[in-house]
């Protein structure tokens, strides 16, 4: 005789205990505290996959240094509209965190955010010209005021001594610098947010619980089937709204829902590794996040960077990431994840995207084949004096890039983040990777508007939202006074200096 399946009901089910669910749960609790929430996580701890500090770059992605957000046009000009959009979204995240610190919900901001200058560094005449053009376009924009550009080696030695030591005097290079950049420990932030939610009577956290199925009921609600991975006990939860924020596994769960909006989506997994410095003397010589240009065919999360981090109160130094390929959709996933995601509805887009991105496939194979010596050679472009004895390999998180249907090409590989929701807004999933966590607040506020339209229209809701995010609905890039005010307030509350 099988084990009895228990049943329960809640308003909202959040699948995955990472930064996305933590952010959405906190927003719901602030804006609509009467809503009952259950957070379901298949691991025995929260924030252990993509949100964990060692599994992502921790860059407050604000487009200050990431060159892949500012592509070069055929005529040599640089397109910056995506950079402006991402910078706006990160400022929204900072405003939300500021509100939570001022409310004493987040008690020690230094646990999750520090000020670390954001820099871009390039080598060779062609890339120096690109960076100069990028700087000239960006410095005119309000969000990027304060950006500094130099080709002067003496200035570079002050900014990045570790990178300049042992470098040839005649090497052509340039860099930009923004002092207000940040390092964010999204794992620590997620744990703080979920700890706060757990203290609420209307929020339940369920660990070691795996969602096995999602079905639509006749009354419009969703039935979420969950298995306890310790006891084997199964249960069913009825919910009016389901959010799938399970990192790479979101695609597999979205497919189980059967909503027509999910048809045609596929996923392409990309793994990663870091070189992690283990020499404290070297770590102390570098204080910046320095991003370079990606290799031809490289996915955006593989843009090389020499990266100051603050993890568990300790300063760290990472270089990478080095891309890799695995059929897993999560670091602690299954090698059957990719095959299991292939359906009749997405096989054509996936094959088409694969054929259109053969350079990416070739790049990933090359990366997988790299020896430690090859990895050191890549680091030496950033740090000429690097020695392998000062570094060790650290496995990074697994990312799944979105593949979606395209009328012209059959399927295209997307490198951003995308929310897929049902027509009635009762279920939604977040797919994709970068900039992800950094823009989580803007993504989740927009999701609430889409999935809870009646509440989002109420004056009480909108008034509360403006308290939480003073710039909501306005453009900081077009309003210097408001931009300066929200940045000053965040700087003070988050202890950024």
Summarize the structure in words:
- This protein is of the alpha+beta class and 497 residues long.
- Helices cover 33% and strands 26% of the residues.
- The chain is built from 16 helices and 20 strands.
- It has helices at 19-31, 81-102, 125-138, 153-159, 161-164, 186-198, 250-257, 280-283, 337-341, 347-356, 358-368, 372-382, 440-451, 453-457, 459-468, 480-493; strands at residues 6-15, 37-40, 113-115, 118-123, 148-150, 173-178, 182-184, 203-206, 209-216, 222-228, 234-244, 266-277, 289-291, 305-311, 314-324, 391-395, 399-406, 410-414, 417-421, 427-432.
- Strands 4, 5, 6, 12, 13, 14, 15, 16, 17 and 18 form a 10-stranded mixed sheet that branches.
- The longest helix has 22 residues, at 81-102.
- The N and C termini lie far apart (63 Å).
- InterPro entries: FAD/NAD-bd_sf, MQO.
- Its cofactor is FAD.
- It catalyses: (S)-malate + a quinone = a quinol + oxaloacetate.
- Pathway: Carbohydrate metabolism; tricarboxylic acid cycle; oxaloacetate from (S)-malate (quinone route): step 1/1.
Helix and strand layout, with pairings?
Elements lengths: L5 E10 L3 H13 L5 E4 L40 H22 L10 E3 L2 E6 L1 H14 L9 E3 L2 H7 L1 H4 L8 E6 L3 E3 L1 H13 L4 E4 L2 E8 L5 E7 L5 E11 L5 H8 L8 E12 L2 H4 L5 E3 L13 E7 L2 E11 L12 H5 L5 H10 L1 H11 L3 H11 L8 E5 L3 E8 L3 E5 L2 E5 L5 E6 L7 H12 L1 H5 L1 H10 L11 H14 L4
Parallel strand pairs: 1-2, 1-11, 2-8, 4-13, 11-20
Antiparallel strand pairs: 3-7, 4-6, 5-6, 9-10, 10-11, 12-15, 12-16, 12-17, 13-14, 14-15, 17-18, 19-20
